[in-house]
């Protein structure tokens, strides 16, 4: 046994006794010293102080299991990987500074990696050039139609402050957004739009040439939080071949028209007067909604922007030309956008109450299913909705019930937290609640296309889509990282699971059962900052079918594409061979991901103690925490925001009040929470999500 590992002139044949994590190893000094500048050469030369156990052996507080193959490599210069975790072994080899071993292990890890991706990798759009800033001049404000409120048309940028906003000379403290990373990806038909912090880029796909950039917006002075795209505009300002793209920040919305050749013109800048929570197109109408109860509509035919006051909105969905609104008073309202131009004279949208929840609970999630018979009879409609108390209800209107309105068909009370998402389709009913994205699914029985009570909906699956995120994420985070479900066809509806906020891996899971379809990992190792699933029209050749793609936006500004149609076909072919179905990340995969994430500064996107994202809407939900949250006493410096690092969590007054009320099980509880007043009182605070 070595008596003095720090001897200045030791014999190279001296025996060294090591205690690695409680396991004894004996080797020669020559074995440990043949690699220069390693941990052992520094240790045995005296540059690193040693700690010895009671027997005099040098103690090293590391994993003894991983040390054994490292010592064998030092002895024989050969590597046996049987039963060895390459990632763990490389981590330990890096600690000990065994450079030749690290290089070999890196090559082993790269065997299954390629910058060209796996068989599912479909394409790569490089980071675009940042557009120049738009030259500023005196703003031109034009009033809207007489009586229309909240109308502001400003051109060009920068935009003036809103007249109805309180004056505040103090600058808002908002999260700093990297101008290079992709915040949101949205799509329509064969077009996609990528929203960056201060500009948007539009791409389109052609069968022969693939994806090509066709439009770049000017550089905006404000940070984009929402984006919408319409690739098939009927009756646009420059004809039916127009495309339109809109971007929103806080209460402001800017709208561009894109001609067939790719040149774009600014249509105008509009104001909703309150923060925009949802931005989308219904036909040729641009629609913006806010949780405060305002709906703004711009019509491509009449060229008018109009804002209407409604009850505070907690969810919304579209069906054909109809906009359906779930509100905090327990009512579901609808607006027929086809009648919009006829109502311009008296400047009022026709808002009609469709149904009222029997328990007066806030409607926190909404899904409309148009049956094949809807095209024959417009009175044939089915709606599933979730409430702030966790109830899931299905209401149905058939031609024979037109006179009395929709009838309550089914009620499920399996959730104990507010329902945040719901999807009703031909074969399945899927609901998600705020308890760490807990999902419940049912099979739907139909007779001649009509939902049936015999035998009725039966439970199918229960699982979670665990998703952590930064506690102070930007307002665009929720729009760009929506878990789904995506898709219209039952057998291909999927959830996209992003387990930790800063990661390069996503899990694609079937929405009906939670089964894992595939996992994707960025081909260049960059962080995935947003994602979206879109079905693009296939080849014009007869017999071709549309293909579904997963688009991922990345921290370096690139967009990567993944072929989910191939993934689904592969999963279905291998279904018979697999006895055990894998859902989200396994325990081992989850722990590996969590090793990259500071749990003291992360939380679940849908904590069980908070209202649904549509109750406080996305911007307010980020102020809540989850059961996985560990309180951090010291803030993490922004300069240390590396891979896996996130900002610390600070409990908000909103959350403290939610803790005291514990739940939102009734409309009265919801009123006590003072949604509209409480949120409006805090509009000056930083929005943590969107």
UniProtKB/TrEMBL annotation:
User: From which domain of life does this come?
Assistant: Eukaryota
The positions making up the signal sequence are none
Q: Residues in domain BTB?
A: 14-83
Locate the coiled-coil region(s) and give their ranges.
Answer: none
Q: Which GO terms describe its cellular component?
A: plasma membrane
Q: Where is this region: Disordered?
A: 131-168
- Pfam families for the chain: BTB_2 (PF02214)
**Which keywords are on file for this protein?**
Cell membrane, Membrane, Phosphoprotein, Repeat, WD repeat
One biological process term from GO is: protein homooligomerization
Q: Which Gene3D superfamilies match?
A: Potassium Channel Kv1.1, Chain A, YVTN repeat-like/Quinoprotein amine dehydrogenase
Q: Where in the cell is it found?
A: Cell membrane
SUPFAM superfamilies the record matches: POZ domain, WD40 repeat-like
Quaternary data: Interacts with HCN3.
Instruction: Tell me, in a sentence or two, what this protein's role is.
Output: Accessory subunit of potassium/sodium hyperpolarization-activated cyclic nucleotide-gated channel 3 (HCN3) up-regulating its cell-surface expression and current density without affecting its voltage dependence and kinetics.
Family of this protein: Belongs to the KCTD3 family.
Designated name of the protein: BTB/POZ domain-containing protein KCTD3
Its source organism is Austrofundulus limnaeus
Tell me the classification of the organism that encodes this protein.
Eukaryota, Metazoa, Chordata, Craniata, Vertebrata
The gene coding this protein: kctd3
């Amino acid at each position: 046994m070595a008596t003095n590992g720090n001897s200045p002139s030791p014999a190279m044949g001296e025996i060294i006794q090591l205690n690695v994590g409680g396991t004894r190893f004996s080797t020669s000094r020559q074995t440990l010293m043949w690699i220069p500048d390693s941990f052992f050469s520094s240790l045995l030369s005296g540059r690193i102080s040693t700690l010895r156990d009671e027997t005099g052996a040098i103690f090293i507080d590391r994993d003894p299991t991983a040390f054994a193959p490292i010592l064998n490599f030092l002895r024989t210069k050969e590597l046996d990987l049987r039963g060895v975790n390459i990632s763990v072994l490389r981590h330990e080899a890096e600690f000990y500074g065994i450079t030749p071993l690290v290089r070999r292990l890196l090559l082993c890890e790269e065997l299954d990696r390629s910058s060209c991706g796996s068989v599912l990798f479909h394409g790569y759009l490089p980071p675009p050039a940042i557009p120049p800033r738009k030259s500023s001049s005196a703003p031109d404000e034009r009033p809207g139609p007489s009586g229309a409120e909240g109308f502001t048309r400003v051109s060009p940028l920068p935009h003036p402050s809103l007249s109805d906003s309180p004056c505040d000379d103090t600058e808002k403290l908002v999260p700093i957004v990297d101008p290079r990373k992709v915040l949101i990806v949205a799509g329509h038909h064969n077009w996609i739009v990528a929203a960056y912090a201060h500009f948007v880029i539009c791409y389109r796909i052609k069968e022969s040439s693939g994806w090509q950039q066709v439009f770049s917006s000017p550089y905006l002075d404000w940070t984009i939080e929402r984006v919408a795209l319409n690739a098939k505009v009927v009756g646009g300002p420059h004809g039916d071949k127009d495309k339109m793209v809109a971007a929103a920040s806080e209460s402001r919305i800017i709208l561009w028209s894109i001609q067939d050749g790719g040149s774009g013109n600014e249509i105008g800048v509009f104001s909703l007067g309150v923060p925009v929570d949802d931005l989308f197109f219904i036909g040729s109408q641009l629609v913006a909604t806010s949780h405060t109860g305002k709906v703004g509509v711009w019509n491509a035919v009449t060229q008018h922007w109009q804002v209407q006051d409604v009850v505070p909105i907690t969810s919304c969905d579209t069906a054909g030309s109809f906009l359906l609104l779930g509100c905090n008073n327990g009512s579901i309202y609808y607006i027929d956008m086809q009648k919009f131009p006829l109502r311009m004279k008296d400047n009022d949208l026709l808002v009609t109450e469709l149904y009222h929840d029997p328990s007066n609970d806030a409607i926190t999630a909404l899904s409309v299913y148009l049956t094949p018979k809807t095209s024959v009879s417009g009175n044939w409609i089915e709606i599933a909705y979730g409430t702030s108390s966790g109830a899931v209800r299905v209401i149905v209107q058939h031609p024979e019930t037109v006179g009395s309105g929709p009838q309550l068909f089914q009620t499920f009370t399996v959730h104990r937290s507010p329902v945040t998402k719901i999807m009703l389709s031909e074969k399945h009913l899927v609901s998600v609640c705020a308890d760490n994205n807990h999902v419940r699914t049912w099979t739907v029985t139909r007779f001649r296309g009509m939902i049936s009570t015999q035998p009725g909906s039966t439970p199918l699956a229960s699982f979670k889509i665990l998703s952590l995120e930064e506690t102070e994420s930007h307002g665009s985070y929720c729009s760009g990282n929506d878990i789904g479900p995506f898709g219209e066809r039952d057998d291909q509806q999927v959830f996209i699971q992003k387990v930790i906020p800063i990661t390069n891996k996503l899990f694609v899971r079937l929405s009906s059962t939670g089964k894992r379809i595939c996992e994707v990992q960025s081909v260049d190792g960059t962080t995935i900052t947003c994602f979206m699933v879109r079905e693009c029209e296939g080849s014009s050749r007869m017999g071709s079918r549309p293909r579904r793609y997963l688009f991922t936006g990345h921290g370096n500004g690139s967009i990567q594409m993944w072929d989910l149609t191939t993934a689904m076909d592969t999963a279905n072919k291998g279904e018979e061979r697999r006895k055990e179905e894998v859902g989200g990340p396994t325990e081992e995969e989850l722990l590996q991901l969590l090793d990259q994430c500071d749990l003291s500064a992360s939380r679940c996107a849908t904590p069980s103690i908070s209202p649904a994202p549509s109750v406080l809407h996305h911007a307010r939900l980020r102020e809540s925490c989850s059961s996985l949250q560990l309180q951090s006493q010291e803030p993490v410096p922004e300069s240390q925001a590396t891979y896996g690092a996130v900002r610390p969590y600070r409990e908000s007054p909103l959350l403290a009040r939610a803790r005291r009320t514990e739940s939102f099980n009734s409309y009265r509880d919801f009123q006590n929470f003072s949604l509209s007043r409480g949120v409006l009182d805090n509009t000056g605070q930083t929005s943590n999500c969107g």
